[in-house]
Structure prediction request, 192 residues.
Amino acid sequence: MTKKVLMLCGDFTEDYETMVPFQALSMLGYQVDAVCPEKKAGDTIATAIHDFLGDQTYVELRGHNFVLTADFDAVNTKDYAGLFITGGRSPEYIRLNARVIEIVQEFFADNKPVAAICHGAQVLTAAGVLKGYKATCYVACSPDITLAGGEYVPAEAGEAVVDRNLVTSPAWPGNAEICREFIKLMGAKVEI
Prediction:
């Protein structure tokens, strides 16, 4: 039976932090159900490309349209082996959805693997699941982790931090590491 991964995303999710994990996990044989509150399978969300061009923070450019693969309203967390929360701007507003919060809490209550990249930590902090956890994120979100009772771990953009069932990474250069650690948490053997 194919293991299923739930991917939480929304409009202006970061392009690489959505497309790359979606494709990598799919390539490995996982069924990735990408969902967004108030949307159904076949609907699209807009992505954003974040890059550093010499300003104090990143710039945001319009990315691609990403096609959702499942209905948000039909999500049953018992059907999934893991949860992947994308970054970008979408976490700041999908965290306002009560069902998003319940979904995250259910994955933690069942001790299932959870991955969150970049601003995805905002969903974790809103769900109140980081108390006692070590996690990383885009540095501008680091106070959120601390305020939520977690321990912010500074990490390079290409790194990932693992604590129990949680893996986090600061940004899209960490896609390979976060995906590698996430599939290990779901029981895959990774040989290099």
Notes: The chain has six helices and eleven strands. The first strand starts at residue 4 and ends at 8.
